């Protein structure tokens, strides 16, 4: 099982301090965690893609890790013919793209995309980040080749210090993000993303079982971050920034959609500091996760791929991210990243007793993940719940992981999914 960490393509590491293997090691698997280039070092690209810097270095690093695993994992007791890749947030988007890319053909056999997929609009990048960096360093050469030579002369410490600013990282879904992937259409070398991602799904280079999912209160992360940094509550100050970039809307259509969002998700159509945090988190699931999942599932079903869905609703002291702020800790369910506390021994993991709810809960989550790695489905024959593939975009069947129990269910966050189904049925989509 190969884990790809999240962090917005900007921060993070696969180190054992962050992702301790102890929980997953209770099952008979071999765990590999990898690092890859981050920030502008991972997302460096030029509009002239013929000069050897077409973009997506971060994703190509992940391919190199998978190639190494094919060549060496047998020496560690692993099976190169049964490689499961799983990742969270941009790690979820990454493993989904690794399933699709021709560069990783034959390297993966199972895919688990956690709280992120290839078609989430925050996974759209900006081509030409190299020119932006050249401006920062006041490089005035005109040709791409000359700019690259100048950049290569900059000491690494100076390069990283000057451009790796946290201020560059955003959570918006309405505009491309510098660190996210780009389409490589003009490169002279193998391309990781040779065409719009949505077109790659129908001809996925690895037609393997896929499990998608998120946490039931995933966007509570916005509250945690805002309160930790500013002490104030998070609200959507500008709803216009929450409309996904893949929707092609006229001015009037945009205004109508904004009005519909307010009427559907917010009491009296108002959003201010008195707005219920639960309503804000519920709405956020749509633009940040559900919209990408809807498009992905539709394309995978059309291609007859095996797709499963999960929701993690666990709420114990293992939910490390949600418990970083006492206000958000009072809301039920699991925030963004909280599932990681059930798969890995994190720095925030509490001490707990044998047969405690925490132990039973992590063992249940680990069982679902390792079942999928073994069998290509989340349930074994001994489990009380069933593995049910999605067959209808209008009826999302899923498994709900609630602490130490797993139940089968239909239609997660029905209001959210129904709303965005209707939006994408009635409005034109722009490929990404």
What structural keywords apply?
14 helices, 432 residues, alpha/beta, two-stranded antiparallel sheet, Rossmann fold, single chain, eight-stranded mixed sheet
Summarize this, please?
The chain is 35% helix and 10% strand. By secondary structure, the chain is an alpha/beta fold. It is globular and about 65 Å long.
Q: What would you say this structure looks like, in words?
A:
It is a single chain. With 432 residues, the protein is of the alpha/beta class. It is built from 14 helices and 10 strands. The strands form 2 sheets. Strands 2-1-3-4-5-7-8-9 form an 8-stranded mixed beta sheet, sandwiched between helices.
- Please give the count of helices: 14
Largest sheet: 8 strands, mixed
Number of domains: 1
Specify Rg, calculated over alpha carbons: 21 Å
Q: What CATH first level would be assigned?
A: Alpha Beta
Q: Tell me the total number of β-strands.
A: 10
CATH superfamily: Alpha/Beta hydrolase fold, catalytic domain
- Mean pLDDT level: 92
Please specify the SSE layout and strand pairing:
Elements: E1 2-4, E2 32-34, H1 39-43, H2 57-72, E3 84-88, H3 90-100, E4 110-114, H4 129-136, H5 144-152, H6 156-163, H7 197-201, E5 210-215, H8 221-230, E6 247-248, H9 251-265, H10 277-302, E7 307-312, H11 326-329, H12 340-343, H13 357-375, E8 397-402, E9 405-410, H14 414-426, E10 428-429
């Amino acid at each position: 099982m190969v884990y790809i960490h999240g962090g917005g393509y900007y921060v993070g590491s696969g180190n054992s301090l962050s992702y301790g293997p102890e929980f997953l090691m209770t099952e008979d698997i071999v765990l590999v965690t990898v690092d890859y280039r981050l920030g502008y070092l991972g997302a460096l690209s030029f509009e002239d893609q013929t000069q050897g810097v077409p973009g997506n270095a971060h994703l190509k690093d992940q391919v190199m890790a998978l190639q190494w695993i094919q060549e060496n994992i047998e020496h560690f007791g692993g099976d190169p013919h049964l490689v499961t890749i799983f990742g969270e947030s941009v790690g979820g988007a990454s493993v989904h793209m690794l399933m699709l890319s021709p560069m990783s053909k034959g390297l993966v056999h199972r895919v688990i995309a956690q709280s992120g997929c290839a078609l989430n609009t925050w996974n759209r990048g900006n081509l030409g980040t190299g020119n932006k960096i050249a401006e920062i360093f006041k490089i005035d050469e005109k040709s791409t080749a000359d700019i690259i030579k100048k950049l290569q002369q900059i000491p690494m410490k100076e390069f990283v210090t000057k451009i790796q600013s946290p201020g560059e990282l955003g959570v918006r879904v309405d505009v491309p993000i510098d660190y996210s992937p780009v389409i490589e259409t003009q490169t002279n070398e193998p391309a990781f993303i040779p065409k719009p991602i949505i077109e790659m799904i129908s001809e996925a280079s690895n037609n393997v079982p896929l499990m998608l999912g998120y946490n039931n209160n995933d966007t509570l992360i916005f509250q945690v971050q805002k309160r930790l940094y500013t002490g104030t509550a998070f609200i959507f100050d500008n709803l216009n920034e929450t409309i996904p970039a893949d929707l092609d809307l006229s001015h009037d259509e945009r205004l109508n959609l904004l009005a519909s969002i307010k009427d559907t998700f917010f009491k009296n159509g108002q959003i201010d500091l008195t707005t219920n945090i639960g309503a804000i988190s519920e709405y956020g699931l749509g633009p940040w996760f559900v919209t990408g999942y809807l498009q992905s599932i539709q394309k995978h079903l059309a291609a007859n791929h095996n797709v499963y869905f999960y929701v993690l609703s666990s709420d114990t002291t293992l939910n490390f991210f949600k418990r970083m702020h006492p206000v958000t800790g009072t809301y039920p369910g699991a925030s963004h990243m909280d599932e990681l506390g059930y798969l890995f021994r994190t720095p925030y993991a509490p001490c707990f007793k044998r047969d405690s709810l925490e132990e039973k809960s992590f063992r249940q989550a680990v069982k679902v993940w390792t079942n999928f790695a073994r069998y290509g489905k989340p349930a074994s024959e001994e489990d009380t719940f069933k593995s049910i593939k999605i067959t209808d975009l209008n009826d999302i069947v899923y498994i709900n992981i609630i602490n130490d129990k797993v139940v089968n269910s239909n239609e997660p966050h029905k209001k959210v999914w129904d709303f965005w189904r209707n939006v994408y049925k009635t409005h034109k989509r722009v490929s990404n």
